[in-house]
Automatic annotation (TrEMBL):
GO molecular function: ATP binding; phosphorelay sensor kinase activity
A Pfam family: HATPase_c
Species the sequence originates in: Cognatilysobacter lacus
The organism's place on the tree of life at top rank: Bacteria
EC number(s) per entry: 2.7.13.3
Protein name: histidine kinase
Record Gene3D superfamilies: 1.10.287.130, Histidine kinase-like ATPase, C-terminal domain
Catalytic activity: ATP + protein L-histidine = ADP + protein N-phospho-L-histidine
Compartment(s) of residence: Membrane
Keyword list, A-Z: ATP-binding, Kinase, Membrane, Nucleotide-binding, Phosphoprotein, Transferase, Transmembrane, Transmembrane helix, Two-component regulatory system
Bilayer-crossing regions: 179-198
Span of domain Histidine kinase: 258-467
Amino acid sequence: MRIGQPRSLQTRQLLVASLFLLAFLALAGYALDRAFLKTARDQLADRLQSYALSLASSGEFARDGAFVAPESMPDSRFARPGSGLYAEVVFPNGHWDSDSAQGPGLPPAPLLPARRTRFEGPLEMREIDGRFGEVYRYGLGLIWSSDDTNKAAEFPYTIYIYEDTDALREQVTVFRAALWRYLGGAGLVLLLLQGVILRWSLLPMRQVIDELKRVQRGEAQRMSERHPRELEPLTDSINAFIQGERENLDRQRNTLADLAHSLKTPLAVMRSKLDDEASDDSSLRSEVRTQVQRMNDIVSYQLARAASRGHALFAQPIPIAPHAEQIVTSLEKVYASKGVLCEFELEEGIQFYGEAGDLQELLGNLLENAFKWAKSRVLLTIEPIACDGGRRPGLLIAVDDDGPGIPPEKVALILQRGVRGDERVQGHGIGLAIVQDLVRAYRGELEVSTSSELGGARFEARMSPGP
């Protein structure tokens, strides 16, 4: 990758997705670890509680107030010193410790109120070898009542069950090792799967790039139409751009061909005049002046016509109403003697997606033609053409007049492209030919028919929706 070059889309998506995946796995692992630790502590508390209840149900106090442990303890570890499981009974006149508690220094154990329980830890204690360890402790507050009716025989006592943290710590350690091992494996599998899915999802983009390279090498004329709907606006725009460039190139070639063909006749006339030895200087100068002026008119016309053909494919929208009003105002002054009235049927805020010069050329030629042949009325109708897929709307421009109209057999003649050397600017031909070229440049169609409203001619230009 070159310095300063942005990362590829695949790299960006893979990096972002990997970061989110790692963050998710970390949060999931932390949540599972906390949940397991809480469950393990709850299970430990339940187990210690069962030991305490078992000791409370089977143990008793002698008449001298000493606690008498049951012969069979709930767990054999209570009888093994330093086993890690300890029992202690605290009462007002002393306390009792299980055999396993002989040696270790248990934490201070206060009396608890009756029917009060307490689970706490880790608490620090001194082990048999003098080191300090940690234990969890469960306390159960009780009241001892003998069968004697003497109320003084009742007194509170508390049973404490201790278990060192080694067992729980080892259990948590094993769980964490398994948890992160499985999460790590799942993360690697998900990363690989994510890379495969990402590569598969970006395959249409690589196909678009391959098609573009084929178009650049001349192996294909345009982009194919078999692409996902998300890429259709892109490929349609590229095809429109390619088509527009080819049309511009064709128009330039046609313009040069027209210009060359048009200049052949005056050049041939001047050459024949120069070869004519009988011609005098005055007639030669007059003929050369005439032909030069004719050539100048031809060049000016062809250049203006070539300029009217090009258009920007992705131009900003232009409001139509101001341009239409300006053109009509000028034409009403030119044809003031005829008293022609032009009516508008325009949607409010309607716009033209193209160049302002193209809009003026299009409206100017259509309206001037209508004013020229109308008796008293001209109708300008402009409305959008609905489209789907989020594309910009098309445009319908129609001009009606109440003139004599155009016979159907002459429609093709007046719209044909002027390429002859004796082509003249006056009349229908040139202006309508320019309109025809402009409409085609915007991928539209120009239709000529009889006006149903005014009875004369109707010129209808339909520009297709844009990309």
